[in-house]
Amino acid sequence: MSSKTAATTNRPWLVGVREAIPLLGGYIPVAISFGLIAVQSGFSGWEAVLISTLVYAGASQFLFVAMVAAGAPLWFVVVMTLLINARHVVYGPNIAPWLTTSRWWPWLMHGLTDQIFALSHVRLPQLQPRDRMGWYIGVSVVAWFSWIGGTAIGAVAGKELTQRWPLLGEVMPFALPALFLVLLAPRFANRLWAITLGATVIIALLFAVNGMKNAAIPIAAVCGALVYYGISALAREKTRRGGESRNG
Prior knowledge:
By secondary structure, this protein is mainly alpha-helical. The protein has two domains: 3-186, no CATH class; 190-248, no CATH class. It has 13 helices and no strands. The longest helix is centred in the middle third of the chain and has 36 residues, at 129-164. It starts with a helix and ends with a helix. Mean pLDDT is 80; it is low at 1-8. This is AzlC family ABC transporter permease. It is found in: Cell membrane. Belongs to the AzlC family. InterPro entries: Brnchd-chn_aa_trnsp_permease.
Protein backbone atom coordinates (compact mmCIF):
# COMPACT_ATOMS: atom_id res chain seq x y z
CA MET A 1 0.00 0.00 0.00
CA SER A 2 1.42 3.41 -0.94
CA SER A 3 1.83 6.16 1.65
CA LYS A 4 -0.78 8.24 -0.14
CA THR A 5 -3.31 5.41 -0.02
CA ALA A 6 -2.55 4.79 3.65
CA ALA A 7 -3.06 8.45 4.48
CA THR A 8 -6.35 8.46 2.60
CA THR A 9 -7.56 5.39 4.48
CA ASN A 10 -6.34 6.44 7.93
CA ARG A 11 -7.31 10.10 7.72
CA PRO A 12 -10.30 10.46 5.41
CA TRP A 13 -11.31 13.67 7.19
CA LEU A 14 -8.04 15.25 6.03
CA VAL A 15 -8.86 14.27 2.43
CA GLY A 16 -12.24 15.95 2.93
CA VAL A 17 -10.57 19.09 4.24
CA ARG A 18 -8.28 19.28 1.20
CA GLU A 19 -11.13 18.70 -1.24
CA ALA A 20 -13.22 21.38 0.46
CA ILE A 21 -10.63 24.11 -0.07
CA PRO A 22 -11.84 24.98 -3.61
CA LEU A 23 -15.30 25.62 -2.10
CA LEU A 24 -13.94 28.58 -0.16
CA GLY A 25 -13.77 30.65 -3.33
CA GLY A 26 -17.56 30.49 -3.51
CA TYR A 27 -18.52 30.41 0.16
CA ILE A 28 -16.50 33.29 1.59
CA PRO A 29 -17.49 36.04 -0.91
CA VAL A 30 -21.20 35.24 -0.63
CA ALA A 31 -20.98 34.96 3.16
CA ILE A 32 -19.33 38.38 3.25
CA SER A 33 -22.20 39.69 1.15
CA PHE A 34 -24.73 38.17 3.56
CA GLY A 35 -23.00 39.63 6.63
CA LEU A 36 -23.03 43.08 5.03
CA ILE A 37 -26.68 42.86 3.96
CA ALA A 38 -27.78 41.53 7.36
CA VAL A 39 -26.16 44.46 9.18
CA GLN A 40 -27.65 46.92 6.69
CA SER A 41 -31.07 45.33 7.32
CA GLY A 42 -30.87 46.11 11.03
CA PHE A 43 -29.32 42.95 12.47
CA SER A 44 -26.29 43.12 14.72
CA GLY A 45 -23.05 41.45 13.76
CA TRP A 46 -23.59 38.70 16.35
CA GLU A 47 -27.10 38.06 15.05
CA ALA A 48 -25.78 37.74 11.50
CA VAL A 49 -23.15 35.22 12.63
CA LEU A 50 -25.75 33.31 14.65
CA ILE A 51 -28.02 33.05 11.60
CA SER A 52 -25.16 31.65 9.52
CA THR A 53 -24.29 29.20 12.29
CA LEU A 54 -27.78 27.84 12.93
CA VAL A 55 -29.66 28.35 9.65
CA TYR A 56 -26.70 27.85 7.29
CA ALA A 57 -28.69 28.04 4.08
CA GLY A 58 -27.55 30.79 1.74
CA ALA A 59 -30.68 31.73 -0.20
CA SER A 60 -32.89 31.20 2.85
CA GLN A 61 -30.74 33.51 4.93
CA PHE A 62 -30.92 36.35 2.40
CA LEU A 63 -34.69 35.91 2.17
CA PHE A 64 -34.99 35.70 5.96
CA VAL A 65 -33.26 39.02 6.67
CA ALA A 66 -35.11 40.75 3.83
CA MET A 67 -38.54 39.56 5.02
CA VAL A 68 -37.85 40.30 8.69
CA ALA A 69 -36.59 43.78 7.80
CA ALA A 70 -39.77 44.31 5.77
CA GLY A 71 -41.93 43.31 8.75
CA ALA A 72 -43.29 40.07 7.27
CA PRO A 73 -45.13 37.79 9.75
CA LEU A 74 -43.05 35.00 11.23
CA TRP A 75 -45.23 32.20 9.84
CA PHE A 76 -44.75 33.51 6.31
CA VAL A 77 -40.98 33.75 6.78
CA VAL A 78 -40.91 30.11 7.97
CA VAL A 79 -43.06 28.90 5.05
CA MET A 80 -40.93 30.65 2.45
CA THR A 81 -37.73 29.31 4.03
CA LEU A 82 -39.10 25.77 3.92
CA LEU A 83 -40.10 26.19 0.27
CA ILE A 84 -36.63 27.35 -0.70
CA ASN A 85 -35.11 24.35 1.07
CA ALA A 86 -37.48 21.92 -0.66
CA ARG A 87 -34.56 20.95 -2.90
CA HIS A 88 -33.25 18.86 -0.01
CA VAL A 89 -36.14 16.49 -0.70
CA VAL A 90 -34.09 15.53 -3.77
CA TYR A 91 -30.66 15.83 -2.19
CA GLY A 92 -31.18 13.48 0.76
CA PRO A 93 -32.42 10.36 -1.07
CA ASN A 94 -29.71 10.74 -3.72
CA ILE A 95 -26.83 10.43 -1.27
CA ALA A 96 -28.61 8.10 1.18
CA PRO A 97 -27.46 4.90 -0.66
CA TRP A 98 -23.85 5.84 0.05
CA LEU A 99 -24.26 6.61 3.74
CA THR A 100 -23.09 4.08 6.30
CA THR A 101 -25.20 2.92 9.25
CA SER A 102 -24.61 5.47 11.99
CA ARG A 103 -26.76 7.52 14.32
CA TRP A 104 -24.59 10.56 13.55
CA TRP A 105 -25.65 11.02 9.93
CA PRO A 106 -28.94 12.86 10.71
CA TRP A 107 -26.98 15.43 12.74
CA LEU A 108 -24.34 15.76 10.05
CA MET A 109 -27.02 16.68 7.50
CA HIS A 110 -26.90 20.21 8.90
CA GLY A 111 -23.84 20.53 6.69
CA LEU A 112 -25.62 19.42 3.52
CA THR A 113 -25.59 22.45 1.25
CA ASP A 114 -25.92 22.65 -2.53
CA GLN A 115 -22.18 22.46 -3.05
CA ILE A 116 -21.60 19.72 -0.47
CA PHE A 117 -24.34 17.67 -2.11
CA ALA A 118 -22.82 18.09 -5.57
CA LEU A 119 -19.39 17.08 -4.28
CA SER A 120 -20.73 14.20 -2.15
CA HIS A 121 -22.77 12.82 -5.02
CA VAL A 122 -19.55 12.35 -6.97
CA ARG A 123 -17.11 11.43 -4.20
CA LEU A 124 -19.02 9.20 -1.77
CA PRO A 125 -19.41 6.32 -4.27
CA GLN A 126 -15.65 6.47 -4.89
CA LEU A 127 -14.74 6.09 -1.21
CA GLN A 128 -14.60 3.01 0.95
CA PRO A 129 -17.64 2.81 3.27
CA ARG A 130 -15.42 3.21 6.36
CA ASP A 131 -14.00 6.47 4.96
CA ARG A 132 -17.23 8.18 3.97
CA MET A 133 -18.24 9.73 7.29
CA GLY A 134 -14.75 11.07 7.99
CA TRP A 135 -14.52 12.55 4.51
CA TYR A 136 -17.97 14.14 4.82
CA ILE A 137 -17.11 15.65 8.21
CA GLY A 138 -13.93 17.17 6.82
CA VAL A 139 -15.69 18.71 3.83
CA SER A 140 -18.75 20.00 5.67
CA VAL A 141 -16.86 21.45 8.65
CA VAL A 142 -14.52 23.46 6.41
CA ALA A 143 -17.46 24.77 4.39
CA TRP A 144 -19.49 25.61 7.52
CA PHE A 145 -16.70 27.50 9.25
CA SER A 146 -15.81 29.37 6.08
CA TRP A 147 -19.43 30.49 5.81
CA ILE A 148 -19.49 31.63 9.45
CA GLY A 149 -16.13 33.37 9.10
CA GLY A 150 -17.16 35.11 5.88
CA THR A 151 -20.34 36.33 7.55
CA ALA A 152 -18.32 37.79 10.42
CA ILE A 153 -16.02 39.58 7.97
CA GLY A 154 -18.99 40.97 6.06
CA ALA A 155 -20.71 42.15 9.24
CA VAL A 156 -17.60 43.89 10.56
CA ALA A 157 -15.80 45.12 7.44
CA GLY A 158 -18.09 44.43 4.47
CA LYS A 159 -18.94 48.10 3.94
CA GLU A 160 -15.28 49.12 3.89
CA LEU A 161 -14.39 46.31 1.47
CA THR A 162 -17.09 47.22 -1.04
CA GLN A 163 -16.28 50.92 -0.80
CA ARG A 164 -12.61 50.25 -1.53
CA TRP A 165 -13.34 47.73 -4.30
CA PRO A 166 -16.81 48.50 -5.72
CA LEU A 167 -16.58 45.65 -8.24
CA LEU A 168 -16.33 43.22 -5.32
CA GLY A 169 -19.87 44.05 -4.30
CA GLU A 170 -21.12 43.23 -7.78
CA VAL A 171 -19.25 39.93 -8.07
CA MET A 172 -19.78 38.41 -4.60
CA PRO A 173 -23.44 37.35 -5.00
CA PHE A 174 -22.58 35.28 -8.10
CA ALA A 175 -19.69 33.29 -6.60
CA LEU A 176 -21.74 30.58 -4.89
CA PRO A 177 -24.24 29.92 -7.72
CA ALA A 178 -21.33 29.72 -10.17
CA LEU A 179 -19.52 27.21 -7.93
CA PHE A 180 -22.67 25.11 -7.61
CA LEU A 181 -23.11 24.98 -11.39
CA VAL A 182 -19.50 23.90 -11.88
CA LEU A 183 -19.87 21.09 -9.35
CA LEU A 184 -23.24 20.00 -10.68
CA ALA A 185 -22.35 20.19 -14.39
CA PRO A 186 -21.35 16.49 -14.63
CA ARG A 187 -24.87 15.52 -13.53
CA PHE A 188 -26.26 16.89 -16.81
CA ALA A 189 -24.88 13.76 -18.46
CA ASN A 190 -27.62 11.84 -16.64
CA ARG A 191 -30.96 12.09 -18.46
CA LEU A 192 -33.07 12.25 -15.29
CA TRP A 193 -30.92 14.98 -13.76
CA ALA A 194 -30.72 16.91 -17.02
CA ILE A 195 -34.52 17.03 -17.30
CA THR A 196 -34.94 17.92 -13.63
CA LEU A 197 -32.35 20.69 -13.66
CA GLY A 198 -33.57 22.03 -16.99
CA ALA A 199 -37.17 22.18 -15.77
CA THR A 200 -36.10 23.89 -12.54
CA VAL A 201 -34.08 26.54 -14.37
CA ILE A 202 -36.86 27.26 -16.88
CA ILE A 203 -39.51 27.59 -14.16
CA ALA A 204 -37.31 29.91 -12.10
CA LEU A 205 -36.60 32.10 -15.14
CA LEU A 206 -40.29 32.29 -16.07
CA PHE A 207 -41.22 33.55 -12.61
CA ALA A 208 -38.24 35.92 -12.46
CA VAL A 209 -38.90 37.61 -15.84
CA ASN A 210 -42.53 38.08 -14.87
CA GLY A 211 -41.58 40.10 -11.81
CA MET A 212 -41.92 37.35 -9.18
CA LYS A 213 -38.27 37.02 -8.20
CA ASN A 214 -38.91 36.17 -4.54
CA ALA A 215 -41.25 33.32 -5.50
CA ALA A 216 -39.03 32.01 -8.32
CA ILE A 217 -36.56 30.03 -6.21
CA PRO A 218 -38.96 28.25 -3.81
CA ILE A 219 -41.52 27.41 -6.50
CA ALA A 220 -38.83 26.19 -8.90
CA ALA A 221 -37.33 24.06 -6.12
CA VAL A 222 -40.67 22.40 -5.39
CA CYS A 223 -41.38 21.86 -9.08
CA GLY A 224 -37.91 20.42 -9.61
CA ALA A 225 -38.45 17.90 -6.80
CA LEU A 226 -41.83 16.92 -8.27
CA VAL A 227 -40.32 16.48 -11.74
CA TYR A 228 -37.52 14.31 -10.36
CA TYR A 229 -39.80 12.00 -8.39
CA GLY A 230 -42.43 11.95 -11.14
CA ILE A 231 -39.98 10.82 -13.79
CA SER A 232 -38.42 8.31 -11.37
CA ALA A 233 -41.85 6.82 -10.64
CA LEU A 234 -42.67 6.57 -14.33
CA ALA A 235 -39.34 4.87 -15.03
CA ARG A 236 -39.92 2.33 -12.25
CA GLU A 237 -43.43 1.63 -13.51
CA LYS A 238 -42.14 1.18 -17.05
CA THR A 239 -39.48 -1.23 -15.81
CA ARG A 240 -42.03 -3.18 -13.78
CA ARG A 241 -44.41 -3.51 -16.75
CA GLY A 242 -41.54 -4.55 -18.99
CA GLY A 243 -40.60 -7.26 -16.52
CA GLU A 244 -44.19 -8.50 -16.30
CA SER A 245 -44.44 -8.62 -20.10
CA ARG A 246 -41.30 -10.73 -20.40
CA ASN A 247 -42.42 -13.06 -17.61
CA GLY A 248 -45.95 -13.30 -19.03
